[in-house]
Amino acid sequence: MNDFSRTYGSAPSMDMSVDAGLRSFMLGVYNKMGLGLIVSALIAYSVGTFAPLTQLVFGTPLFYVVQWGPIVLLLGSNFLMRNPSPAASGFLYWAVVSLIGASLSFWVILATSGQSVDTFRGSLSVDWGTIAQAFFITSSAFLALSVFGYTTKRNLMPMGTFIFMAVWGALALGIMNAFFFQSGMLELALQFGVLLLMAGLTAFQTQALKVTYHEIAGDTRSMAVMTNFGALNLYLAFVNMFQIILSLLGRE
Question: Is 156 exposed, middle or buried (CB count within 10 Å of its CB: 0-12, 13-18, 19+)?
């Protein structure tokens, strides 16, 4: 996450020409993000359907690594990766993708078992049709937001700081609600709030990548690092939107 973005310098004018180099850079980011989603889906399906893996992830202390590992890695990267290398940023990306993929197996287990779980707002159950519907809605929204962020002449950079702070605030409030408040209304409000934040993050991050490219074009090392961080930021936005939409569709 690294503040969800590793932009280099301030934003230039939004009236930037599109060239082959920019298209190649953005394509590399989205290809890496897409590959990350595929890897996460494969891990989720494997963990959710293969009993020994299910037991390993959900029946041992590894569960806490899967649950909290991505947050620890993302927070730690802010302090330990001040001048990240392509290898280090790539390791962070694939580590987060793998851990989140394992956590997504929760939805696979629900879909394959037909079971439901109790939440603060009632029961939650999903099937493969619900998962497909949530993925289609998320993909459509993500595409529209990315196109907006890529094409708009409006400077979205000022909203970045607000998004970062609001996301961490929502995360902290969500943890407090899970352990202390246990309020269904607060859970619902947080879901819609985070959904809006992820929508804003998608548009913002797309434009931030475009801005950054014009600042680091020709610097192979910086472009490799930004490809990893850009893919990570967009991956996180997509997965969060997907899980919230899936949760809303699965309410009984």
Answer: buried
Q: Are 233 and 4 in contact (CB under 8 A)?
A: yes
- Top pLDDT among 45 and 4 is at 45
Q: Which DSSP string do the residues of 153-206 spell out, in sequence order?
A: -S--TTHHHHHHHHHHHHHHHHHHIIIII--HHHHHHHHHHHHHHHHHHHHHHH
Give the C-alpha distances (Å, rounded to integers) separating 75 from 42, 72, 96, 132, 178. Answer: 26, 5, 12, 31, 20
- Please, how many CA atoms are within 13 Å of residue 185, restricted to the half-sphere of its CB? 0
Alpha helices in the chain (DSSP H): 20-49, 51-58, 62-80, 86-103, 105-113, 128-151, 159-176, 184-216, 220-249
Check: CB of residue 71 under 8 Å from CB of residue 77: no
Q: What is the DSSP letter of 251?
A: B
CB-CB contact of 244 with 195 (8 Å) = yes
Nearest by Cα to 5 from 238, 242, 240, 226: 226
Per-domain residue ranges of the chain? 20-113+125-249
Q: For 186-197, what is each residue's pLDDT tens digit?
A: 788 888 888 999
The model's pLDDT over 125-184, given as tens digits with 9 standing for 90+, comes to 899 999 999 999 999 999 999 999 999 888 888 887 788 788 878 888 888 877 777 777
- Can you read off the two tokens belonging to residue 83? 């001048």
Q: How far apart are CA 252 and CA 250, in angstroms?
A: 6
